[in-house]
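Field: sequence (string)
Field: structure_tokens (string)

Example rows 1 and 2, in order.
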Amino acid sequence: MRSTTSATRGLAAALFGGLAMAAWAADEAPIVLQITTDMAWSDIVEQIQGEVVTFQVSEGWDALQSVDCLTLAAGSRWTFELIDTTGDGMISPTRLPGFSLGAAGATLTVTGGELSGWCALGGDTGEDTGGDTGEAEEADVYAHVISAHPDAEITLTGVGLGVDTTGLSVTAPVVGLYGLAGSLFVADQEVAGLPFPAVQLVGGTFIQLRGSYIGGATSAIVLSDGTVSLNEVSFTGGRAERGVGVDAEGGALLITDSRFDGGVAKTYGGAIAAQGAVVVLDDVAVASGQAAEGGGVWAQGGSLTITGGEITGNVASERGGGVFIDQATQAKVKESSFTGNRAPLGGGLSVRSVETLEITDTLLTDDAASLKGGGLHLQQVSAARLCGLTLSGATALVSGGGIYATDSTITLGAEDGSCAASQILGAVAPQGAALSVIDTGDAPDDVGLSAVDLTLSQLNGGEAEGTTKDQAIYVSTPGALALRGLTTPGGLGSLALLTAIEAEVTLHDVSVVNEAITQSSSFAAVQQSVISLTRPASVDLQRARICGFVAQGETTGALDMVTIDAPAGDVLLEQSALWGAASFGALVRVIPDDSGLSDAEVILRHNSLIGGIKDFQDGATIFAGSVVATGNLLSRLDVGLVLSGQDGETETYNLFSETVSTPRRDEGGQTVRIDDTSTDDVAPLDLVPAFKETSCAALPELLESSPAVNGGDPTGTPDPDGSIPDQGALPITLDDTDGDGSFDVDDCAPDDPTIGDTLDEVYGDGLDNDCDPSTIDDDEDGDGLSRDVDCDDADPTLCPPVTQFFGGRAACGCAAATATPGAPWPLWLAPLAGIILRRRRRQAP
């Protein structure tokens, strides 16, 4: 350590003089001392320990001429203020000593200047070995400031850190600010090019408001225990083994409104590396970081919460271009954005061995993986809940353009609205352009995928060499696969929708109707079935809409639109509409395994299977343990149904258009007579609007006059209005031209909003408002008397009939018979007439 001479100590004592000594003796507080550039004062410092002192430091002072490290005794409350001595607004470089606080009640406040002196924390005792000791000593650590007591309080404002380590032992680490206990508060600290950490916290609290760290050859802040809190702090450039901005191995790291830019780590975390720490990032920007794992942020163990902020342009050579999370008990990302991050696995975010992952209202744009998971890469995540997630333009060269997951359970959206719907737009990958979910057998329980109201649009299979089969979603797991409310408003391009292996498949309200294809008047060519299910544990497919696909090239006629291969459990296809294709072998095909045996029951109920060209493809070909086909509508097909069940087939209430060449054919190819409840020779089905072979613009809904209306099983489940169910999946065309709430098919005046079957009758307006002729417009009480003759049209009780008297007046007016003019009054009216005449005479003037 640096040393001072006895002559210097004596000079300092003489300069302060008797007045200063008297002030200390009287214990006046605070004591104010001015430190000038030519002052030596180490001896004086020893005499004011335990006092409240404000040191006014003249600019340009070099404390190292007299003291290297000041150790504050118990109760010392010292303040150092740098003074603009010349008054020119410019502060000359001022070198301050190091400070060590290891006693109860010691506080230090420093404003301005540069910390240039060094204090040492030595041996296993934790004692300060700094001060005026002369030669360098062995130490555990050297630091400009040491906070080593739980009561220590240190505040530094606009204070720089010196880089000169001359004279320090090369065997001990060097750090700018060292916190063992107590609290360190720093404001407006600017640090550049340090060869050692600016801050190391092994206990206590470090808080920084504003400031910057530029360059540097190691982590700027190192955390082992305690709490680091940063607000409005920036980190630019720099290199480190890990965690260029912050390297945390334990403790809590809280960062708000800060930015990390351009850090390069050899292993983990171009900006932040955290191991076993609680990390909370709020509105933090992480840009252009580089590392092997976690180009921006790397977190292992502990927990990570990211709220707001931007993760942009980070690169990892292995996984987690933007963020990598490993073995954490919990990870949350909310209202954040990831843009243009890159890695082989997980361009935007990679998560491994995490119990709970929640990503909410987050946008990932143009992230890319050279292998898997352009947006997200998940591995052994027990519960991944993705709410309001938008993945746009994510790319993977192998699998999972948007999301790739192994041995993980994923939930996207929720039916009760507790988790907002997500969307994947413009994602690219040869396998699972939007999603790939794989079960390797090393997974936690219930591995699978559940998505509610997921939107897929403008996806692309990429151009990987040797790729022949591309799909939007690829799933291989014996667990659950549930897609509800999935839509593809921008189309799937040349991609099929789904390939699933062994899963328990639930597909409800799936709409794969390509609007973009509609506009170009041509269908997308696919190289595999639009929905391909292999060895599914079970299949529940309801209310699906599929249009806009043709089989490509050499596969024409060999592919089926929906293929279910070797089902291990029962299959239900209900209320689904498949139409417009012209080159598939069949719209639906269910086949057993290679043995030709199957115990599965297949139910084909109330579906619309409509081809593009007659005599070209079949409707449904089903080979299973047992087959039930009922209430289906089939049109523009070669063969409507090919059914074969080991335990028999049940086929009722199906409707075959005249455009179906052969309604039903058995396994041997022979035409089979349809039973009495089915129709194989009918008039055209009256599909509206006019069906086009190469357009999905108009659904083939039913006109009211179609024979499919109320054509289903009268003993089956009725339609919502209580009527016999229609045949097929699509409803009657229900328009409401006048907007009165009554559909045109039931509205007796579809162009008049005051008339409709859902409206109430308005009495006396001359209109049949409720479309019910039995409701008399001018008889409100329903007693059979019109309003003009009913004395009380709100009372259904009839008045006794009377004869109308001459002059047009009636005594009661109920069902009156018209009297002949000049006819005598009835005898029973004479007394009443006399009374009326007498009253009139009395009232005459």
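Row 2 begins here:
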Amino acid sequence: MAPPTTATDFRMLIEQSGLLSVEQLAPYFTENADPEAIAEHLVADRMLTQFQCRQLQKGRADGFFLTDKYKILDLIGSGGMGKVYLCEHLILHRLVAIKLLQPPTGPGSEAARSYERFYREARAVAALNDPNIIRVFDVDRVGPNPFMVMEFADGTNMHEVISENGPLSPVRAAEYIRQAALGLQHANEVGLVHRDIKPGNLILTRSGVVKVLDLGLARFTQDPVRNQGITDRYDKHIVIGTVDFMAPEQAFETSAVDIRSDIYGLGCTLYFLLTGRVPFPDRSIPEKMYAHKTRAPAPVSELVPRVPADLMEVLDKMMAKEPADRHQTPAEVVQALAPLVTDGVAPPPVHEMPAQTFACYQLGLSPAPGPTSAAMAPTPNPLATSDTDRTPKPGAWDLPGYNTPQPRPAPADTGADPSILLATPPPTSGGTRLRSARRFRRLVRLGELVLFVLAAGGVGWLASREWMHAPRTNVAQPVAPITVAPKEAPPQAFAGRVLAVGGVTFADPVLQRWSGVYEKTHDVRLDYQPVGQEKGVDRMLDGLYPFACAVIPLDNARLGQARGDVFHIPLALGTVAVAYNLAEVKGDLQFTGAVLAEIYLGNIKRWNDQKLQACNPTVTLPDLPINVIYHGEPNGTTELWNSFLSKTNRAWADKPATPVWPVGEGAKANAGTAARISRTPGSIGYLELSFALSSSLKVGHIQNHVRYVRPSSASAAAALNQVVGSIPADLRYSLIDIPGDDAYPITGTVWAILYADQTQSPAAKDMLAFLRWAIHDGQSYVTELQFGRLPPELVQRIDDRLDELRIPR
């Protein structure tokens, strides 16, 4: 269905969705009401969640319920094998987390085995009942896709806590690891091994309780901060784990590891909590594997002073290379750590926890199913072929397979419990696969010594290859889980050409969107690396990138450093939004450039300051301190921000150029800024608009020369339309504080910066084809990310400029 344009359309969508009744909607719809204002009102009154509202505003009315029992409130995680939703149990009026399995169903995907293991392991973990483990309440399915109903923990994972706030004190670190070990001991007592212990799989709740995630489950979600994935392979013969926290023995036979491998991973996690870094940062995957086997990490005492010797002794034993030298059970870890936390630990500070709490979700708005509903019936047999009563209405918006019947062959007589099978391969293939697996394991054992001998001589070569083909960073980050497959089933490599480019994080959303579309239609993959404007331009000027993306055109001094003529090719328009975290304030706030500069200079310190109140005369602002968030490293978004504040506030323009901001705390680029604002009540920050919207942040209206304007694709385009007729021949211009009724005053252009002479570039033809596609067909995708389209008259001038490129014949 098309996105709603009128209040009537919006009301019809909500009624069709079943989220609210006619009576509940009546007070919100009046004559000439604006759909956007109605949506904001419904969210502010907690009648709809921000996630539900976004889906409705896209014209989606179906898919808000998983069976009759569960209403979807929010999407809290996703990955290659499925999604994780925050849901309301409609009978109990309780929040639960639901993992919906959606494995690939193409040739060779082995979806049936994924389903079988999902049910088998879910039953095993559902038997666990421990305060330090996320519990499983139920398993059901929707269409062909099984899902798991789990405890919802109000908190955040330890990886985010450390990434956002830095290392913990020794006492806190010891207490949290002690609690995790208590959960692992309970699992160990029933014979379960986690195999992927890491900070991202430990949840810290507001009350200070640590809970272990994904114990023994078929893991398919990804970390929300996008720099640490979670394992999503299911074959028992494939090595599973995250290399930064993986025990040395785990890289060779995942299925054979025992609880001592989890203790090693817990030791690496303790190292991370104490130091803020993984044991072996800035290395390739093979180098990390080799280091876990043969080397000791940098001593904690050199990285963090004043760690008690007793805690260091426990850490060293947990991270011993040989399993026999470690603590043999989690109970031993608990016993070793207990004397270090005798005084207990206070609950975590508020700033470490999510800004939204349980109170943000109003329960009981949708009626519970009646006594004859399927929701009251027991979970159906997975072999049943009739899903008529359990499948959502046509048009479900994000659960592929809802309305597509899936073929289910009759189960073979394997002797297994038939209630855990969806589709089992013929029994004749089982013996062959088992024999192949055994042969493979024997070869792995025999080749272990050879592998590490070769690795010792090849580490330098591997590192040099990585320096040649990928940018390195000094920031230690956990890497995606490593999956080592048998030789007979290697992953399929991309067969087309790759166009490696990079630049501002500001442009990352639209470049990534274009990349996915362009690869499917042109067999060319655009590998965009958001390294920042300065690094991106440097690499372009050095010939490492065919083009770099920037939001600030190069000045004459920088152009003078180039080894030839440089072109600026506009690709799209973006806006710098002002986002803030004030849960108690309804609607959008208004800001002037002068007031924003006063906030960032530290002159306005509280939200109810008279100057802020003057911008928002109809809003009661809270008496709270303003937590200022800025970008910790120089980047294009900050340059746009500084340019705007300099034009609208003389004090900011006169501020000396210094890397030290007057007030506030720094975050890493746009994604880090969004995460910091969302977790810091009373905060304010600037970032590219799509990052704010994807994080469900409130966005302010900024005063232009006439009125207050909200950032959007339309207001960005309005700014360019004011100057399109006067853009110079080199296509360098500024859209900061442009006069115009609808012009957003902090608008920037995403430029592709490239050399005019491409005769020596092997990627020249692919680059030119992509740039022409981006300014024509690619424009149809920019508005969905709230980027602005280029006007036709400018597109024609860009085409003429591209004709001047010198490319190989």
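free_text_note (row 2): The first helix runs from residue 7 to 17.
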